[in-house]
Each structure stands twice: as C-alpha cells, then as structure tokens.
Specification:
The complex is a heterodimer of chains A (about 300) and B (about 350). In chain A, helix 4 runs antiparallel to helix 9, helix 6 packs across helix 8 and helix 8 packs antiparallel against helix 9. The N terminus of chain A is likely disordered. The longest helix of chain A is centred in the N-terminal third of the chain and has 40 residues. Chain A is about 75% helix and about 0% strand. Chain A is elongated, with a radius of gyration of 23 Å. Chain A has about 300 residues and is mostly helical. Chain A starts with about 30 loop residues before the first helix and ends in a 6-residue tail after the last helix. In chain B, strand 9 and strand 10 form a beta hairpin. Chain B starts with a strand and ends in a 12-residue tail after the last helix. The C terminus of chain B is likely disordered. The chains are: A mainly alpha (about 300), B alpha/beta (about 350). At the A-B interface, helix 1 and helix 5 of A face strand 1, strand 2, helix 2 and helix 3 of B.
Chain lengths: ~300, ~350
C-alpha cells in the first residue's frame, strides 16, 4: 500500500488505469497498464471515479496513520503542542454552546412530556439525549470547525510551500512527523471535551428544567438513574473518539492534497469542514443504530 | 565519495499530458551535471522523480541498488538520506528559524549532542555566508538568503548526491557567480555527485562536467559539456543563443505552421556568446576535484563516438586543464592562476538569466 501523500492528485481523475482499457479478466494494475501503452491515449474516465479515488485515498491515509502511530520515535513534543492548541481553541466555545443546547433539549422535552403528563421522565430523557447525541455532536462541530480547519490550513500551506516535500526528501515521513500527533491530539481532545460537554449540558438541562419549568429535582434525578446506564456514557465517548479520528484524518487528507496555490488551501479548508460534518453525522447515525440494537435499554 | 545515479527509461505523465518519456542517463560518480531546458519542460518534475517524490509510470532510478521509483517505501526513505535537494525557493519550515531549519535533518536522523549540532550547523552557515542570521525566520529574509539556507540544509547530512533546482532563479548575477563557485568548491570538498537544473547559461557554461537538455518530452542529449556546447541540434543552438528563431516558442513549443511562417521573417541571431569557456576551479586552498581525473578517463574513452567539433573542444579543454594544473602545482603555495579565475567566474553578460 502506498500512502496517499506520495502521489499528488493530478488535475483530472483517473489518468493511468482508465476503465476503458477493454482487457478481459481482472483489470491491470496502474503500473502494468502504463507500461504497455506509452503515450497515454485520451480516455474518458467513468463519472464518479474521481470520488471513488478520493475516498480510497482518504481510507489509505487513515490506515497509514494507524500504522504510523506505532512507529518510533513518537513525536511527543508535537503532540503536546497540538493538544494544547486544539484544547485552547475548543474548550470555551464548547462550554458556551453546550449550556443553551442542554437548555433547549430540556425545555423541549419538558414541554412535550408535560403534554403527555410524563413530567417525571423529563430528566432521564433529556439527559440521555444530551449525553448520547448532543454532546458528541457539539464535539464534532467544534473539532471539525475549529481544530480541523486549523490543521487543514496549516498542513495545506506547508504543502504548497513545499515544506512537506522537503521533509520527505530529508527522509522524514510527514505522516509520522506531523499527521499522527495531530490526529492523536484531536482524538484525545474530543474524548475529554465530550466529558466536559456532557457535564455542562446536563447541568444546564437540570437548571432549566428545575428552575424555569418548575420540575421537581427529585423526579429529574430519579428518572435519570432509572433510565440511564453506564454504556450510554461509553458509546458517547466512543463516538467522540471516532469523531476526533475522522476529523483529524479528513483535515490532514485535504491539507496534504490542496489543489494549487493559496486559493486551493482555502478551498481545501472549506471542503475539509464540510466533508467532516457529513461524515460525522452519518457515522453518528450508524453508531446510534448499532448501539440501540446491541445494548438493551435499562429495565427492558 | 559520490554515488552513481542511473536513470533508465523514465516516463511521466500528468493525466493525459505526457511530460517526458523514455529518459535515460547516468550521472557519473562525483561529477557535476547540468540539466538545461526551456521553462515548462518538466525539469523540476525530473528532479523530484529522481528522489522519489513523484512516481513516474515507468522506468527506474537506481541509487546504490535502490530503485527510487518502484522500491518499497521503507527503502526509498532510507535511500533519501543519501540525497540533498535544494528546492527552488528553499522550502524552509516557516515556523522554525534558520538554525532549527538547518539542524532539522541532524536532529531527526542522528543522535548528535546539541553542541555538536551547533558546530555542524554553524559550519554550514558559514559556508553559505549566513552567519549571524541563524535566529531569523524564513519569512524575514530575502529570497536569495532563503535559497542559500536551503542549500545549507541540503548539505548538513553530508549527502552523496546533491540536487539543485534552479539555484540561480531570483539571484543577481554576482550572487549567481558566487553560488556557482560554492557548488564547485563543495564538489571539491565532499566529492558528491551533483545535478543542477537551470536555464542560466552562465552556470551551464562554467560549472558542469556534463550537460543534458530536455525538450519536447525527450532528453535531447546528455554527455560531456563540450558535446552540448558544440551541438548543431537546432533546439540546443537556439537555447544557447537565446534567439527567437528555432523550435522553441513562447508557448511550450511552436507548431509546424508557426515555424513555416517564421522562415520568411528576418533572422534573429540572438546574442553571441562564447560558452566554451574553461570550467570553474575550486577556490585556492581547497583540494583538487577528484572527479576531474575520473572524468578525463571516461571522456577519453568515448572520444571516438563524438562529433569532430565536440572532440576538438574536449581535447583543447583537457589540454588547458592539464596546463593550469601544472602551473598551479608549480606555484604551489600562492596560486595566482586559480585565484584570478576564482574571483572572476562570470564569462558573459547575464542577459540569459531570468527570474
């Protein structure tokens, strides 16, 4: 497997092993095909092949990162610097976002519950929504928006200044030296941030439910402990860790492959945030589905 | 001691655009080679392919038994430690000052103590004339300084193969001459195999042992410098004279119609230059370049296969060189011949250098 960072994306999609090579049997590899036909004929690439190629390269980078994590020497200094940077740009916004978020959920669930005379379950419902859904998603938003964009812009501008090429020429792998510490830092910050957002969101929800909607504190906490269980917290943290990994890898991928010039870096940052959002929300759906199937709800 | 680099049948395309095909050449051990070519003929791509940054579709680049194109990633990374590549604009790390930039390869690849690193780095800084600027960030210095710092970083691990991407672009004529001298001195000191990619004719005329030229997706020629300088090939002749008349056009290459139309027009002779000037010698006090001896053997062996013009040019330059060598040997301690030459390496006017 070759790392995706090695091959710059070349203008259009699918130059070498075009799908129209019309040979029977298993398709030839990129090298084999290029060997055979020297002046490459103009081939019409299949629509959508570019997407496939990008996706493959993204996965290849993810695998390369996972493998490089275990390679010595570990770039501890870079990791700490990145960790500190990501934490410093995400903690305050996360806390500020999670209070109104928890409040909105508490108010909404509270008003709905009072309509069907189930006020006593407000606490459990709003806390579960908070911990399982709201908190990882807030983390995703901030990790992708604040940390991912910064990582992508940093790596992107280094790429167009040929700094990463220079690093490779000096026999240092940019994936191991730069990408791994950043991805690990986003994972760690995401996990810790998720814990903080859960607490702040839950407290915010409690405050709004009890103070604003005249809920009873006892019922709130009782329904909470009746419905919530530890696996809820586990899945929340697993989600956060996975979101951190995805955000870090996508940001690094777009940063390592910007298309030409400073404008390309801007576009890459933009795309990295959008792609990360799409991926994270989709992964969240899948994980939630799996969790609800696998883990029996408490008391069932 | 340098390492021979042999390139065999290298072909690279970006999408459907073929950059060059079937390029084969050998960089002889310890010699300085120059690759010429009009802008946009893939000279930089060629350099990057040699070091494995860009993967050509076919062909091999053999360095010390490692194929930089097809060998496993691990071997390629290992082999890269033999290389020093000077990027076009230095490619320094913007977040580090010059000292840390130059120390970077040492810190990554060696277990040297900080005091030892400091010594090596200061030595290299002195070599490229940047002492006193080591605390500055790359953003705070001029393009020429960045280039020299890039060169210092490329040299810090004592590479056996040095690749320079347009060392002259963005430098004034005087600094270009100094840089030429620096490259020759370097070759004398560490005997590294060197490849310089440029379109500066003064570097091309004074620095290399061997010259090649890329044009129209092909390697036009590669061989001893005299072969290219005396070549009758229209592309080479046009390039060396800077004339508008010939196969090279403003866009990458002229088509047949444009060439035909041009025949009716008045001649543009370009600029007369005598490029067959003696090669630069190392600065006084430095050892002889050991590549000179090896090259003499090699070139004498291939004389019969060359054109008469190239043959006579090689004969006269070899004779001139052995003369200066004897004079220098006689004047042992104070060599005025060498000194004079080292101080004034610029043979022609600088109309050819752009940037």
């Amino acid at each position: 497997m070759t790392g995706p960072a090695e091959e710059k994306p070349d203008g259009g999609p699918a130059p070498e092993n075009g799908p129209t090579s019309g040979r029977p049997g298993p398709g030839p590899t990129a090298e084999g095909d290029a060997d055979g036909s020297r002046p490459p004929a103009v081939e019409q690439p299949l629509p959508g092949l570019g997407w496939l190629r990008q996706t493959g390269a993204l996965f290849a980078l993810a695998v390369a990162v996972l493998r490089a994590v275990f390679k010595r020497p570990f770039q501890f200094r870079e990791f700490v610097e990145q960790f500190w940077f990501i934490a410093s740009v995400t903690i305050l916004p996360a806390a500020l976002v999670s209070i109104p978020f928890g409040a909105v959920i508490a108010l909404q669930v509270g008003s709905l519950a009072s309509q069907i005379s189930a006020q006593s379950f407000t606490g459990g419902a709003s806390v579960l929504v908070n911990i399982q859904q709201a908190s990882p998603l807030i983390v995703a938003l901030l990790i992708a928006g604040a940390a991912g964009s910064a990582i992508c812009a940093d790596l992107g501008s280094r790429t167009i200044r040929e700094e990463l090429d220079a690093m490779e020429v000096m026999g240092v792998s940019p994936i191991q030296r730069l990408v791994v510490p950043r991805v690990l830092a986003t994972i760690c910050v995401a996990v810790l941030l998720n814990g903080m957002v859960s607490v702040v969101g839950t407290l915010g929800g409690y405050f709004f439910n009890v103070v604003m909607q005249d809920g009873t504190p006892g019922a709130y906490i009782a329904s909470f402990s009746a419905l919530a269980q530890l696996p809820d917290l586990y899945i929340s943290e697993i989600k956060a860790a996975l979101f951190g990994f995805i955000a870090g890898v996508v940001a690094a991928y777009r940063g390592l492959n910007p298309r030409g010039g400073p404008k390309g870096v801007g576009d890459a940052v933009n795309q990295s945030v959008v792609i990360t959002f799409l991926l994270l929300f989709f992964v969240n759906l899948v994980l939630t589905g799996i969790y609800l199937q696998l883990v029996p709800p408490k008391g069932a | 001691m340098g390492i021979e680099v042999s390139v065999e049948g290298l072909t690279k395309s970006f999408g459907s655009k073929n950059i060059w095909q079937d390029v084969s050449l050998t960089l002889p051990t310890g010699e300085v080679s120059v690759m010429l070519g009009p802008s946009g003929t893939g000279k930089t791509v060629f350099l990057k392919s040699m070091i494995g940054l860009i993967k050509p579709e076919s062909g091999r680049v053999l360095v010390d038994g490692v194929d930089m194109v097809n060998s496993p990633e691990r071997d390629v990374y290992e082999a890269r430690k033999l290389f020093g590549l000077m990027f076009q604009d230095g490619a320094l790390f913007g977040s580090m000052n010059l000292f840390d930039n130059i120390a970077f390869p040492l810190r990554e690849h060696t277990r040297k103590k900080e005091s030892e690193i400091r010594r090596v780095v200061m030595e290299r800084l002195e070599m490229v004339g940047l002492v006193g600027d080591e605390g500055k960030l790359p953003g705070e210095i001029s393009g020429g300084m960045r280039k020299r710092a890039g060169l210092a970083r490329a040299l810090v691990l004592d590479p056996q193969i040095v690749l320079c991407d347009e060392p002259d672009s963005g430098l004034d004529p005087v600094r270009t001459s100094f840089l030429s001298q620096l490259l020759i001195d370097l070759n004398a000191q560490i005997d590294a195999t060197m490849l310089i990619v440029t379109h500066n004719l003064d570097i091309a005329a004074t620095v290399p042992d061997n010259m090649g030229m890329l044009f129209r997706r092909n390697l036009v020629t590669f061989g001893p410098r005299e072969v290219l300088l005396t070549s009758e090939e229209p592309v080479v002749a046009q390039f060396l004279s800077g004339s508008k008349k010939g196969p090279i056009g403003m866009s990458e290459e002229k088509d047949a119609a444009a060439l035909a139309a041009e025949r009716g027009r008045a001649d543009d002779p370009g600029i007369e230059r005598n490029l067959l000037v003696p090669q630069l010698e190392p600065s006084p006090g430095l050892p002889e370049r050991s590549a000179v001896r090896r090259r003499r053997h090699r070139v004498e062996g291939m004389l019969d296969s060359l054109t008469p013009a190239a043959r006579s040019a090689i004969r006269s330059s070899l004779a001139a060189r052995s003369e200066t060598a004897t004079v220098a040997a006689q004047a042992a301690s104070s060599p005025p011949v060498n000194a004079g030459r080292a101080d004034d390496p610029a043979p022609t006017e600088q109309a050819g250098s752009d940037g």
